[in-house]
Amino acid sequence: MSSVLESADIKNKLEDLSGVVLKPGENPYNALIEAGNDDPAEIQALYAAHRARRNAQQRDKFLASDYKELIIDPYLLRLENPHIEPGFKDPRYCMTFWGRPPIHVLKLADAIQQKLKAIAPKIWLMPLYQMHITTLEIDFSRTAEEIEQLKETLKPSIPRIASYTHQHRARLAKPTISYDLSAFALSFLPAAGEPPLSPAPTAPDSVAVLRQGDGYTYHHLRRDMWDLAKAAGVTVSSRYIVPSAHLTLGRYLTNEDHATPAQRRKWVDAIDEVNRWLETEVWDNAESDLIGEWVVGQEKGLDIRVGTLWYGGGRTVMMGEGF
């Protein structure tokens, strides 16, 4: 029998630092769109404010005089080190709608992972083939039977949801590393007028695109996913609703690389350096070998996913059509 463990999320609550207040009883994604006056530049600014404030908050935690330790995920620790608890199985079943990054985003993520690994060799890195962005989390930490029932309720709507990005194309830009005491991620902002950088869609791209351009932001896409799930008869029970668009790059499984103040300073300074490099060399740079933009749905539609999903696992119910 598996141990009863405390999730890292309980110790590391992800709060909305954008300043937007959600309204009870309505689609929670509407609040930020309204706060941003349905304007892509204002919506981007709210995402950017959340990202900057959270990174500043977490930097302070790493450098604090009363720093204690990293928040190490006990589930991942056991999965990666089977000797700790032989036979351990993650019991937390989930259902999500994932966006899968195209090849050029995976190349960028790989380059950043290697830069971070050079500073902290013992970090756990998310395998590239498991990377994803959680466009909508339907439910989490349930039994396999409960998730199966959710899937069956959604089943008639899944084909439309999975391929929704084929005709509703939201663009992400300006990636940086976001981090905290439990993990680190490549975080994007909804695009707002930046020059296009992504490769052209694979020809022929003859579908009638219903929504595209930066007026249809990633937050609008998330809003639509929530509405489609609700219309299908499902109650959306996400862990958090925050203005974030991120791919997890990795987590910590030991304190060894961050045990001393000097090591922690080196870590946060390295993240700052990579973020400066991204801003000056990758953002809006058509000459860069690495591309800092992602039109969600390029190459692959949404991945409707069930199972033990926390670290990129589980199984695909349906993958939507890409462009």
Describe how the helices and strands are arranged:
Layout lengths: L7 H4 L18 H6 L4 H24 L10 H7 L12 E7 L3 H17 L4 E2 L7 E10 L1 H11 L3 H5 L1 H4 L3 E9 L3 E8 L27 H14 L13 E7 L9 H22 L10 E3 L7 E5 L7 E5 L4
Antiparallel strand pairs: 1-3, 1-8, 2-6, 4-5, 4-7, 5-6, 8-9
Helix pairs in contact: 5-10
Quick summary of this structure?
The chain has 323 residues and is of the alpha+beta class.
**Helix-strand topology string:** HHHHEHEEHHHEEHEHEEE
Q: Count of helical segments?
A: 10
Instruction: Write out the strand line-up for the largest beta sheet, numbering strands in chain order.
Output: 2-6-5-4-7
Could you say which structural class the secondary elements and strand pairing correspond to? alpha+beta
User: Which stretches are poorly predicted, pLDDT < 50 over at least 5 residues?
Assistant: none
Determine the mean pLDDT.
Answer: 94
Helix content: 25-40%
Characterize the biggest β-sheet.
5 strands, antiparallel
Number of strands: 9
Strand content: 15-25%
Q: What distance separates the N and C termini?
A: 45 Å
The shape, in one word, is globular
Radius of gyration: 19 Å
